[in-house]
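ingest -> fold -> write
write: protein_1
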Amino acid sequence: MSETKPPIERTEDEWKDILTPEEFRVLRKHGTESAGTSPLNEEKREGTFVCAGCGRPLFASDAKYESGTGWPSFYQPIEGGAVTTHKDRSLFMTRTEVRCAECDGHLGHVFPDGPQPTGLRYCMNGVAMDFEPQGE
């Protein structure tokens, strides 16, 4: 059984001290990076995508696929409750927001138009994640 830890709590100034301005805008202010701008779109190595805010493992490279949207996309998060989902009613529509379970940072949204085996598309902001290559 895995333990559920409370989210990391930091003040806005503490987050600004540890994140780049773009990471802060996306992770803490629920922003979105421009499509096609993330170097993680081209990341093809084996490894793990982790939260840029706290380092929590979020997605395994074998769950990544090319969705054609311009953002890194995955069909499922890594096991162990890595992410949480929340209703997002911004932009005059209802979507499902995805956040890091450890620091509550905004990662992106999940949609029901992904590939099997889940049928889900976790459309993530690359700036909200770092990549850790396997074996390095």
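write: protein_2
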Amino acid sequence: MTDITPVQLMKAVKNPVEINGMHNAHIKDAAALCCYFSWLEKNVSTKKITEVSGAQKLLEFRKMQSDFVGESFPTISSVGPHGAIIHYSPDETTDVQITTDQLYLCDSGGQYKDGTTDVTRTLHFGTPTEFEKECYTRVLKGHIKLATCIFPSKIKGNYLDSFAREYLWQVGLDYAHGTGHGIGSYLNVHEGPMGISWRPIQEDPGLEAGMFLSNEPGYYQDGQFGIRIEDIVEVVQARPLHNYNDLPKIKRLIIINMLTESEVDYLNKYHQQCRDIVGPLLDQQGQTVAKEWLYRETEPISK
């Protein structure tokens, strides 16, 4: 009996139909999240929205998308200190209000008949501190570096982990979880045997074209806040990793002068892609407020 079977290895490399489905699922999921985050921004200062009720509202927006079946895991909807608890799950005993005074970390995903999603965004609906913005920007720089790195086929994910941590390590910061996990196609949201982690993964067969993994560096200040930025990325042949979330990064939390010209260029191209791909779907669904939020968050930046 073996721990890793041929079936697992075949599932890890998606076929063209699965790849197309994953892309479509993430476009729909991005539309749902645009609706949720724009709704939050509009209502958080005038209504009592909590971690639990926010997660329920997000589920309502996902249910509006075609071929949605259910959540791929319980939503991690976390405010302030709760965001520093990496696997926090809100319930009635811990539920707190989402406010304009603290960071809000939302890690969630959906199961669609054409694919599985897992995405994290960290937002602030007021004025973040300089330290919060510095941490967010360092996490973003590592996220971009991993998303754009080119590497030999079949290299183990463990060798790529340091790319995501480099800019945190420069100032003595780190995070205590892996950087990426495989993801299924309308299957497990965590699907092995490959992964990206500071720990060597014995079963990792090496990364190759057709695999999908999460890219999710973060930083957690105990008792204060948590930051994580997560997209699902596809390993492709002979060109940089492509991003399949099409959901804006949060400009309010970025210190632009900390970014290089190439990082600014990457972000602007990525945000244009968000407009081009998700904008028409929001138009089709009549989600005017969500589209306005999307376009504002994707305005080009410059140093």
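write: annotation protein_2
The helical segments are 6-12, 16-43, 51-63, 130-148, 161-169, 261-285, 288-297.
The mean pLDDT is 95.
pipeline exit 0
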